[in-house]
Specification:
Layout lengths: L13 E5 L6 H10 L7 E6 L4 H4 L5 E2 L10 E6 L5 H14 L2 E5 L10 H8 L1 H4 L1 E7 L8 H4 L3 E4 L5 H8 L19 E5 L4 E5 L5 H20 L8
Parallel strand pairs: 1-6, 1-7, 2-4, 2-5, 3-4, 5-6
Antiparallel strand pairs: 7-8, 8-9
Helix pairs in contact: 1-8, 3-4
């Protein structure tokens, strides 16, 4: 997908991923997740629509809205649209927890003025909260998703007003490239720190991504099984 000179998101960064339904952003998000450090700390997927691709992560652990996990691994939190108050409280506890990864599928489901969601975005670097936020429509999403992003990955977009919003945050001499049509499942990738715009091809195949994730999760389970149990004196 990328060449050796392209920077990828790290443990304290924010990645905004934008694209219409079927553009390839969800599989790309899973690819980024497969390369993250969920073998060292917890990563939580906030799944608003029951995404079938996330359900295929066999070793992912299901959690509820009252849980912010401590152990390394991938956790799947399915959220109903009417649970906005509980979701705000969950972001507060994630902010207090620190050192956690959060993947938000369909970021427009979170209210634009959710203070604790915005706090995770604006203070993510100091609290070591890495975030990947997906959205179909930037016009519906908190502006902090974009103002605090370290990286953007832009797939095919249906509405011109959405691209107009993104242009405010992309400062590159080759910004006109954004007007060029993308091949199927390809994307634009923008590094904010370097002010560098790239065009990316397809990510790995679904089966390959899931296999890479499963191998790391299996290794976590094996390590836990062999961890010595301390006996009370």
């Amino acid at each position: 997908m990328e060449d050796d000179d392209v920077r990828m998101p790290g443990p304290e960064t924010r990645l905004a991923m934008i694209g219409r339904t079927g553009s390839g952003k969800t599989q790309a998000a899973l690819w980024h997740l497969s390369r993250s450090d969920f073998d060292e700390r917890p990563w939580v997927i906030l799944d608003y629509k029951g995404e079938k691709l996330f359900a295929k992560i066999e070793r992912a652990e299901r959690i509820d809205l009252d849980e912010v996990p401590d152990e390394a691994g991938i956790y799947l939190l399915r959220v109903r649209p009417d649970k906005k108050k509980q979701m705000t409280d969950w972001f507060r506890r994630a902010w207090e927890h620190e050192n956690i990864g959060i993947l938000v599928d369909e970021g427009y489901m979170i209210e634009q003025h959710d203070d604790w969601f915005d706090a995770c975005l604006t203070q993510g670097r100091s609290k070591r909260i890495q975030m990947i936020v997906l959205s179909q429509r930037p016009v519906w999403v908190s502006r902090f998703v974009f103002s605090e992003a370290d990286f953007f990955q832009i797939f095919d977009i249906s509405h011109s007003e959405d691209m107009d919003i993104l242009r405010k945050y992309i400062h590159d001499d080759d910004q006109d490239e954004l007007d060029e049509p993308l091949q199927t499942y390809h994307s634009f990738y923008y590094d904010v720190g370097r002010r560098r715009l790239e065009t990316f091809g397809k990510v790995d195949k679904e089966a390959e991504i899931l296999a890479a994730i499963d191998a790391k999760l299996k290794a976590i389970e094996a390590e836990e099984e062999h961890r010595p149990v301390r006996r009370a004196l």
